[in-house]
Amino acid sequence: MSDTRRRVKVYTLNEDRQWDDRGTGHVSCTYVERLKGMSLLVRAESDGSLLLESKINPNTAYQKQQDTLIVWSEAENYDLALSFQEKAGCDEIWEKICQVQGKDPSVEVTQDLIESEEEHIEEMPETSPLIDLPTCELNKLEEIADLVTSVLSSPIRREKLALALENEGYIKKLLQLFQVCENLENTEGLHHLYEIIRGILFLNKATLFEVMFSDECIMDVVGCLEYDPSLAQPKRHREFLTKTAKFKEVIPITDSELRQKIHQTYRVQYIQDIILPTPSVFEENFLSTLTSFIFFNKVEIVSMLQEDEKFLSEVFAQLTDEATDDDKRCELVNFFKEFCAFSQTLQPQNRDAFFKTLAKLGILPALEIVMGMDDLQVRSAATDIFSYLVEFSPSMVREFVMQEAQQSDDDILLINVVIEQMICDTDPELGGAVQLMGLLRTLIDPENMLATANKTEKSEFLNFFYNHCMHVLTAPLLANTSEDKCEKDNYQTAQLLALILELLTFCVEHHTYHIKNYIMNKDLLRRVLVLMNSKHTFLALCALRFMRRIIGLKDEFYNRYITKGNLFEPVINALLDNGTRYNLLNSAVIELFEFIRVEDIKSLIAHIVENFYNALESIEYVQTFKGLKTKYEQEKDRQNQKLNSVPSILRSNRFRRDARALEEDEEMWFNEDEEEEGEAVVPPVEKSKQEDDFPDSYEKFMETKKAKESEDKENLPKRTSAGGFKFTFSHSASAANGANGANSKSVAAQTSPASSNGSSSKNATLTTAVTASKGSLVGLVDYPDDEDDDEEEETSPRKRPRLGS
User: Region Disordered: which residues (predicted)?
Assistant: First the structure.
């Protein structure tokens, strides 16, 4: 049905006493066989689906409010409302409801809301006259006040009193008496009027609200509510509303109805939030109609402003005009902030239209200019508007910044402006920075990114972010850790670095290879671990959490980076410096090592035990470090058994690390391996030579290994005079940048074959032998793609039987 008379929005009241929109459709009143009675049906205008099917129950109380609303309760805590586009449609459906219930359509409510047996016996018949109101005179005020407060407990009597007040124009007479009392300074009368007006508000009747909140009455209503008997002195609410609260028109509003609505909404909201006491549990439903009144007013204001495109265009033009002075711009931004706050009352499809209108008019480029301004108030309001936009549609914001990147420098990109605002927040507690960090996290969260048939937002946006924005985000971190110590360690810097680390930790969890490449290229983890020396424990814990997330991924690529760069050293130093204190830092470090033990991450276990066990073996209040040693030894035994069970031809090549035996045979091994891939580089060497060589070369290998082990013992950490351990490993630049330094020869070569966690076999797959002078040890260069062979080789010692054939 397309006629607008029957067009309605369906609302339900949620637990917070706010109306939730359920959709727009067309209402009809028809007999439904299944429900055995006349029912209200609402079919969605978009797809014809059933939004509402509600039988008109003879005992349900239906209320008609503001000429275009019908409200009722389906169950104890389930309130429904139909908001009609036109009054005629509302009247039509109201007549049908009254017809089913046998009521006169002129009533505003069809039933008593909570009707007990006793009340029913006591109440006069329906046809009896309304409540008789005392004449509106000064000497009757006490009587009127008693009457109004006495009816609040009975829904029927409340209804009858409301009708009586409405029919006799009684409220206006009461307000005239208020002016008389105030002129005479009749305090007792003013106290009675406070009780009367408060009681009338609690009748919860929209028709009475329309009278009370009209331009001619509202200030007198506020005046009555100033004279609370419980206060020694009356409040000065009218003075605030007329003199202190200023109505600012950023652009003159020509529509008088819109102006009146804005004034009325502000004042009614003031009455609800400031003047009326917070309702008790028993009274909270008394003001539900007042909440609805404000809600529907706000919807109307936003709709009227949104439809006036000339007005909005003018606001945008002034906001982005360089000639606009700062005060004016501040007002314009505050207008938008309030406008966006009001828009939250709109139903979803209207809110979509609202934000699309703003986007079309250029809200994002405007925000970009405003967020870079010096004025703190303006920046704060702009941040609030930005948060509404990000919350509404992160994709819309992402699309804008990616298009912008094609025609602007990195410095002025919206996301970089946001990051700079976060970094430059002057508040010692970084309140604004925390809000901006939350928005950034929403923008870079892959969970809310769309993947369509023709493009993937995730890969496009993350490529953009890591190319154009990541360097801005990490700049303070890299600048503060450049000399392997914290340059600045004050509280505000620590807070900021903690926020940046929180975002980077989020990236490690959600961005996989983008962040992995970034960490490797910038040697980021080493820089982060410098912060383990901070005097602020929360920052040291943030750095540790970053490392813990990386290790938690159990990615061999990361593990090699950590072992080659010797990145456990700062963590173990922090544990030893912490001494015997049993605190969060102590627990977090131990949990990190416990995770490595439980998950049995072999490469890390071997590295920790071989390099740091002497320093850690004295820690006996947990079994973590002894457990690591046990795991290490078990793995060593396993590798030795594998070594013995493998045919000699394999053993001679696979585990040889002595340069004297490497040259010909190792090359043959790699060339043979490549031949299987379809490309022989050098013809294979004869098999018999390998077998003859084996005993001699293996003995040489074992001698070299023992000599190396004795050297390692000399290099173990020494206890300092203070009783702790300090490590003084020397690293070449290439070793420090583990994964980057492809030519790193001095790292990991000392590890014995038995403890290499299968890395020897792995290295043989996609690695190049580095030829060295005779008598020296050789390291193999790792490449990132060889992770996949790990598990396979641990389980299968007979990986390459082809060489024995």
Answer: 667-805
